[in-house]
Amino acid sequence: MKRICLMLALSFVLCFAFSANASDIDLAKKSTINSILKRGELRCGLDSGYMPFEMTDKNGKFVGFEMDMARELAKAMGVKFVPVNMSFDGIIPALLTDKIDIITAGMTVTQERNLKINFADPMIVVGQTALVNKKLKDKIKSYKDLNSPEYTIVSKLGTTGEQAVKRLLPKAQYKSFETETDAALEVLNGKASAMVYDLPFCAIFMAEQGKGKLFFLDKPFTYEPLAWGIRKGDPDFINFLNNFLTQTKNDGRYQKFYKKWFESTNWRSKIQ
């Protein structure tokens, strides 16, 4: 009797293991990796204009820190890098409808977005800062001082900058823009009190155009990891991306791109 029970138990374990293994194989076959390799192209969704992550140079080429990383990813996969430029608020829908394979658009990992898509490990961590019109220098010492109906705050539509304003500065008036540059110019021209946006963009804009017209609250007041996004249910693609990021951060490639785009502004003269 014990032998029969043991054999039945063993049969159950083997059947379960076979079923689980078959399920894993089936899941692997459905991975986006296979369609990318079959097509010979990596379709990367981006929204050009986010300095210094993705921009358009004077020759119409998409360049920037994240574009260099995405090109390196395509090279590692042995496929062609295909940038797909679109508005930021349309990028997740494009991913979900298979118009792109991956989001490479400086996207912040949020719980709301994570309910819709999966993220690879963070590529870089940034946070929200504020560019403020110089006329308010005696009144504004912290981003919290902007939380008043007398101030108009601007940011880019559909971004975590916009979310931060609505969450942390609910009393202020808010106006959104299609591009971060248009939002910053609104403050520069005195039509808005301040812009809330990611540290890299604000730092670059301040250095290039803000002297004498703006002041910079440069200490980030949010924690925002930026990461690549893919469709849910694809552990093989996530595994590949995470291993790729680990490799590039330890073989010098990541540091090379970081130094090129964050520690130098030589690239600015080549941008549209």
From TrEMBL:
One of its GO terms (cellular component) is cell envelope. The keyword Glycoprotein does not apply. CDD domains: PBP2_Dsm1740. It is found in: Cell envelope. SMART domains: PBPb (SM00062). Keywords: Signal. Residues 41-265 form the Solute-binding protein family 3/N-terminal domain. Residues 1-22 form the signal peptide. Pfam families: SBP_bac_3. Its main location: other. Belongs to the bacterial solute-binding protein 3 family. This is Extracellular solute-binding protein family 3. It comes from Maridesulfovibrio hydrothermalis AM13 = DSM 14728.
